Amino acid sequence: MKNKKIIWLASYPKSGNTWFRAFLTNLYKDQDKEFDINDLQGGPIASDRSTFDELTNLDSSELSFEEIDNLRPEVYCDLAKNLDEIRFMKVHDAYTYLKDGSPMFPVDATLGCVYIMRNPFDLALSFANHLNASIEKTVEYMNDSNFAFASKNNKFNIQLRQFLLSWSGHVRSWTEQDKIKFIVLRYEDMKDDPFREFSKAINFAGLNFSEEKIKVAIEQAKFENLKKQEEAKGFREKSPKSPSFFREGKKGNWHGKLSNELVQSIIEHHKDILIRYKYLDENNNILV
Amino acid sequence: MSYFYNLYNLNIKSEIELSGINHGSENYDVFISRGDLPDDLGQDSIIKPSFSYLNNIYLLNIKDTIKIKVEDGNKITVDAKPEISNTTIKSFILSQGMGVLLHQRGVFTIHSNAVEIDGKAVLLCGKSGAGKSTISAELINRGYKFINDDISVLQNIDGKFYINPGIRQLKLWKESLQFISHNEQNLEQIRPELEKFRIEIDNLSSNELIELNRIYILSINELNPYQLFKPDSIQKLKILRNQVYIKNIANFVGNKVKNFENLTTLSKTVEVRTISRPRQSAPPSIIVDMILEDMLT
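YS: structure for the whole thing
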């Protein structure tokens, strides 16, 4: 119990994870200190290679993918053992299992998971910008149950391999497992009522912050501030391939920008999860 | 069958072939053999992800691949299944195996490539992926001599540091092979699972000690790329401490006091620079131009 100190901030990419981390950063910082998007809580990401190398004392660029996967749970346990307090950790990996059936994200190191999700229609546009890929190609990736980041073995990758699975596969992996407790936040609800949604996450984590502090942190972390900072000084977590990280920050932005073919493809591949999380009704009407 | 090598001025007798390493005397200092090994050194040992340590014995355990025991600075035992390739075994022996052994012997090591520029050694340090090897490749392309890859052994002789040449093969990813002229026959894939290769380099420095001139620490910085910075002496010591080979293991395997003394002397006597580059598509020529221009100062 005493080593269960990590709260995974899990999400498919471009679902609002960074926004939540910006909120956390403002929550934790002193009121009179400036907030910096290049120094966010919740980092580095769980698949950060140099953290792995530091804790294993190995050069992971000379290990196979499987050898790295086998070591990742031990790394997180070692990290958690040396924490004085709860630590949020961003992760884009799906909740996956090693060959021996044990989870990549170990129970012994985990306090819980805040799972952040976003409707795949808006997500497709944002993800395409991030990947600097066509929307068609991006939807293909989102539909692919074998999709992974950093999976090429002929070059150096700054991160470790991460299996994302498909968009709905990713959602299922974190929300249908029974090993660690979790809470689900929808990006769209965060936009509608950030105080209610962010407070849910703070309560889930067992943290104690006043309503006033939460409201101030939400205001400081609003999208316009993040975008302004990126324009002024850059954002080191932005993909080198894309022109900007903070694009529009809206919900329902997909209307008129996704072809009917792509919309139907998304529905076909992810229908159960779309309905479960109220992005689609039983008559195939999209609710965002 | 036994093979005899010389590496870091140590004579090695090995039951495992380590191609590309210089031949050595049968009067050996270090013995490498095969044997059965446990998963760890027991509950009294320090147990960390990937290894355990107890009483000057280090045991690496990469599950389903290899275990390596390093004892007292003179013995390496390897436990690997028959299906594990020799190149894989060689990779682990030359990195973790020799790295820990050198620390156990009190040898001062820096994680770096080394290249000879104007008759003196220049170290290229940095985390994995920072660009040490591609920068080395570009320097070799420009006619500079290659001293060693990965582990640089430093000898402190009357307050001056000298490099004792180590592994003479350069490792590059397939994607980076374009940066160096090479013969396909001189490539050795380091692991079957990875398209990363060891390359025999023709233009090598001599095997003698080479005086150390300068240390460059490479890093990725997306927001401030192509910046060259000259740290002050306090910053230098902090920066150099992070460049010790497998530094966290060095803290309890090696001679901490002697290491610290060497680092302090190094920070006072050798010029150090940090250089940043962007994450993607950074032609090594830009960084090499920055290094060569700085060397003139």
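YS: worth flagging: Chain A has eleven helices and six strands.
IM: good catch. Also The mean pLDDT of chain A is 95.
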